[in-house]
Known about the structure:
430 residues; alpha+beta; BirA Bifunctional Protein, domain 2; Rossmann fold; 16 strands; 20% strand; elongated; binds adenosine monophosphate
Amino acid sequence: MGAGRGNKLGSVPSSPTIRAARGVRDILPPERWRWRQVESAAHELARRYGFEELETPIIEPAELIERGVGEGSDAGGKELYRLLSQGRSQASLVLRPEATAGVMRAYHEGHLDLGPQPQRLYSLGSMFRHDRPQAGRYRQFHQFNVEVLGSNAAAIDAELIEMGWEWLHGLGLNGLRMELNSIGDETCRPAYLVLLRSYYRPLKERLCADCQRRLEDNPLRLLDCKRPECREQSGGAPRIIDHLCSPCQESIAEVRRLLEAAGIPYRLEPTLVRGLDYYTRTVFEYQLDSLDGAQSALGGGGRYDGLAKALGFPDTAGSGFAMGLERIVLSLPPGPAPAPAIELLVLPAEGVEAEAAARLTRLARTRVAAAADHSPRSLKAKMRSAARSGARWVAMVDPAEASAGRVRLRRMDSGEQSELSWEEMVEVLG
Length: 430
Ligand code: AMP
């Protein structure tokens, strides 16, 4: 409403309608209601698994994120939203593209490392990646993020996988799949990477341009490249699971035993990897058949025992997962329509003082969700609007009724109407 005094409407220059920025979207009430159900299920799941909620800032120091997601990686490089520095500090800040590095920072900065271990932590919030927008891929999106810090037990990985599975399953998603792999650790991975490079070098010309570049410095990423020409080659590549050191072998064997005992179906997927050095051992991903190929992952996670050190914190074992809420909400089976927000509408006739209408509404609100229609429309028009709103009740009041403390209460479904005192109305609603 920023029009200055004397700025007549007619003199406002016409300009193109302002729309949301590219790659972001509004979540309007009917859809937001579904989100609320998904979020409530996440809070409830976390509570039952003994996880505590935390919230970290959307803005983080660039260095934390660059070290956390790797400057050379997509999320750490070209996809990172950088803030123009303002003020004297000249601090280099970014919008977080994922939660884990911030959670690790908060765990140390907030001394959670001194509390009982491990710490089971979760959060829900927005992430930002300056990616090319496409179906199921946004520049601002939301994740349910779950981390266990301070334990290197394989049983924690299995617990996390079970937790994510239970949540997705409980939301009623059909066609869920879970894929599992181990990517070894600093003992066994280097020798495997030598093997992998020697496998790919003679095939270099057949790979996509990105993979040709990655071959020497990050060959693991070649395995999960989604381009058809690279997929053709990954099938014959040596599998890291066949080259694990014995502690890594024992770790994945224990995860598998625990998943089998819990009845969680999974498929070993030798091309499932994480491209960063600090990821260790278990990696997993939840897929949904009905989603389109490259965007079929609802979420994923794994163990990152090397992350804390990479960020400059004391060595801390960690494991976790991140689920994308957009894809989950998109894939939910149809559910019941949301209940109308307003259960009772107060319809004051012309001449009823605003204070009286407000008092009547306040009384109704002690029992049901209530609001008043203050517009200067006829009663008939107000009734039509009340019917569209889905309100279960309307409370009509004219000036004489207002001063006598009376009201006409009408049930919208049956049309049944009674004349009552305001106190009687409260009884009926209660
Ligand atoms: P990541 O943090 O890349 O492992 O992603 C975890 C999950 O977050 C994915 O499986 C997606 O469901 C979701 N996700 C990641 N990036 C995006 C995006 N740009 N738009 C929407 N969802 C995303």
